[in-house]
Design goal:
The protein is α+β, with helices and mostly antiparallel strands. It contains seven helices and eight strands.
């Protein structure tokens, strides 16, 4: 289907749009024929077009209108994503976080993109979320993982250089695989299980972090 070079009315947005593909110049006769056919076969659209045309500035005027700068919208943080996640994903997050934390001297730290579980300077595992998928990153070699787990090698990315093995968790079976890998990674680094470990409420900690973030934002807005 051929198009023409020039301005046309966009029915959905009510704005002038420039069409360039397979271009040819449109003359008055062709425009009159187009108007007649539109009025004959699509009278309602023709009436709508006339209303929009009255409201849309001419091309010369449109060139003088300053473009509207898009407003920067920051990406949601890990705690924001997790707070909006469905209950199944939240439960898997809670289960795997506690499963990883049950080793001695491990601590969890929530950052913009991750929940990182470390022992001092040793980065043990990280958890992140993307849509409906929970992602586990482990400090181990991709060659030591079972091929059936379908892990992804992330060592070429600077962010994951210390936790280069990624496992996408979208099912109960993947949760079982994640636990196997966590145990395997713990054994690799000589971590010992804490028999007195008390489970944490992962989502309660998410809510606390989110409330703290919102409080800081409100305080900053008030000062401004």
């Amino acid at each position: 289907m051929r198009t023409y070079s020039g301005n046309r009315i966009d029915f959905e947005n009510g704005v002038l749009a420039t069409v360039k593909e397979d271009s040819f110049e449109i003359d008055g006769a062709l425009m009159d024929a187009w108007n007649r056919d539109l009025l004959k076969y699509y009278p309602e659209e023709y009436a709508e077009l006339q209303i929009i045309a009255d409201e849309v500035p001419m091309a010369e005027e449109a060139e003088n209108i300053a473009p509207i700068k898009p407003k920067y919208v920051p990406s949601p943080t890990f705690v924001e994503k997790m707070s909006r996640a469905d209950e199944v994903l939240q439960d898997r997050y809670d289960e795997l976080k506690n499963y990883a934390l049950r080793f001695k001297k491990l601590k969890s730290r929530l950052s913009k993109k991750f929940d990182s579980i470390n022992q001092g300077r040793l980065q043990f595992v990280k958890l992140s979320v993307a849509g409906k998928t929970l992602k586990l990153y482990l400090n181990m070699d991709i060659n030591d993982t079972d091929p059936k787990f379908h892990c992804k090698d992330m060592r070429d990315k600077k962010t994951y250089v210390t936790v280069p093995v990624q496992l996408r968790i979208k099912s109960g079976r993947a949760v079982k695989y994640a636990k196997i890998l966590i145990d395997q990674c713990a054994e690799l680094h000589g971590l010992k299980e804490n028999k007195k470990f008390v489970e944490v409420d992962a989502m309660a900690l998410i809510d606390e972090a989110l409330a703290e973030k919102n409080a800081k934002a409100e305080a900053a807005a008030t000062e401004a």
